[in-house]
Amino acid sequence: MARVRGAERLDALRARWHHASLKTSFMVYMLGFLLLALVMSTVTAGMFSGLQHRVIADAYEISGLYLYDAHNRTLVPARAVDIDENGSSVFVQTVRGEMTEMPLTDLSSLVEITDASDYQYSPGTAYLYGSANDDALSVETPEAPDQTELTPAELPAYDAKARDRFDAWLAANPDSPYTSFFDGDSQDGNTVGLLTSAVGYYVNTPPSEEAQALSSALELLTFLMFPLWFGLCIFAAARRFFGKRLQPGFDVLDRAASNIAEQNLEFSVSYDRDDELGHLASSFEAMRASLAESQRALWRTAEERKRLNAAFAHDLRTPLTILKGKIELLDAHVQSGNVPADRLTASVASLAAQVERLERYVAAMSGLQKLEDRAVVARPTRFDSVAGMVEDAGTGLAAHADRTFALSVSARCDRERPELCVDHAIVGEVAENLLNNAMRYASSQVDARLDVRDGALVLMVEDDGPGFSNAALERGCAPFFSEVPSAEHFGLGLNIASLMCEKHGGGVTLENRETGGARVVARFSLDFCAE
């Protein structure tokens, strides 16, 4: 169970990271790589620093305080021992694990030896001796040695000279605290078994030029590790952030833009992250869908116009043919000089009827052209107002056609009487067209029903006539479609109703009733006021 919960938490964490915003993911990438840079720079800087110390380590292996053993010609380890409160000290042989006796012959010429004597009477210092009760104090400054920086080859001569100078000074100053340690001879102190002297040396082995150059290079690398690693990690973080979080989204948007530019809208824009690029991809998809719908609408409009023009040309051919025949026949009679008055009157009446039919065709076409440019003007409207308008239209048409009409509303609408947002004029014209068409084919009864569902006003008109044929169910809303050709009707009623419903965000559906008769359902979207 604990393992399952752990796996669920891990999956939730992965999902949260997958959909993290670009700002959050960039900060996480930068923080992670900066921590990596800190660790790597610290490790590598420490490594180069260690190498630097190893390079110059040999220079310090013999460094320290030493005494010179003239009998064995060696340098022996020593330590300073204070002999009074004034800081006077002597150097006493000692044993240290890291320091051993060194024969002069084993020392490199690079070894530097420095006089470490720090007693008050050492070279360069003044010594005041005498009594405080004396009238005057004498001041002596011992002769300074020739040099204090020595090579191993120079050390024996320098050490002998320095000890002789100290012995001469000690003999001239018997009150010195050094007297108890040196009995007139600085070559041997009174510390039994250990070499003691007032003259000591610091020994130092400087690194070679090659080691010094390598040490400088390693020191530079140690310094450069921090900016180098931080720069590399920042670059790596930016590259990974771009590759993981930006590049996939840019590729999706680039392909979408290319398809749209090529007017190819049969694709979808999908991106599986819920970040800023995901939101942009969703906006692209909404734009693509809108463009695709607009393109389909334009295509439908163009196709509808082509069908309309074809239907108009086809229907126009009949009256034109009749006119042409009548004119030719009339011309023949006129040429023969035998034109009865009644035939002439009939021919003129027939010509006038065909001209009138042509005028109606032209008026119908003009009405369709105006309908395409008509805008929907939706306003808040009471349900009772729409119901009353439909009932008045149905009652008037039924009286003229000698039919029976009844209007009903859904139980919810009857109870709530919702407020509608529709174009009152469009709803009225559609209702009149549907009711007029139903009155033509009904045997005796036409029914209408109003309802509001799925965000639309629904008007359903039924009749008890023969119903729709298969051809009518398929093409009943096409312009100039009519199963019963008539000089009075051009088959535009359902087409006009369908166009107006589509403009109002809905449509028209043709059905047959189970009990016989036709059913036409018109829908009007109620979302126009929200827009």
SSE topology sketch:
Layout: H1 2-18, H2 22-55, E1 64-69, E2 74-82, E3 89-93, E4 102-103, E5 112-115, E6 127-129, E7 138-140, E8 149-150, H3 155-172, E9 196-197, E10 201-204, H4 209-261, H5 276-336, H6 341-372, E11 379-382, H7 383-401, E12 404-409, H8 411-416, E13 419-422, H9 424-441, E14 445-453, E15 456-463, H10 470-475, H11 493-503, E16 507-512, E17 518-525
Parallel strand pairs: 12-14
Antiparallel strand pairs: 1-2, 1-10, 2-3, 2-4, 3-9, 5-8, 5-10, 6-7, 11-13, 14-15, 15-17, 16-17
Helix pairs in contact: 2-4, 4-5, 5-6, 7-9, 9-11
InterPro entries: 2C_sensor_his_kinase (IPR050980), HAMP_dom (IPR003660), HATPase_C_sf (IPR036890), HATPase_dom (IPR003594), His_kinase_dom (IPR005467), HisK_dim/P_dom (IPR003661), HisK_dim/P_sf (IPR036097)
Catalytic activity: ATP + protein L-histidine = ADP + protein N-phospho-L-histidine
Main location: membrane
Number of domains: 3
* The named CATH superfamily of the largest domain: Histidine kinase-like ATPase, C-terminal domain
**Shape assignment:** rod-shaped
Described by its quaternary structure, the protein is single chain
Q: What is the number of E strands? A: 17
Q: Major sheet, described briefly?
A: 8 strands, antiparallel
The low-confidence runs, each spanning 5 or more residues with pLDDT under 50, are: 121-147
Q: How would you classify the helix and strand content by structural class?
A: alpha+beta
Q: Architecture of the largest domain, CATH level 2?
A: 2-Layer Sandwich
Instruction: From the alpha carbons, calculate the radius of gyration and give it in angstroms.
Output: 58 Å
Average per-residue pLDDT, rounded, comes to 80
Work out the strand percent: 15-25%
In the CATH scheme, the class of the largest domain would be: Alpha Beta
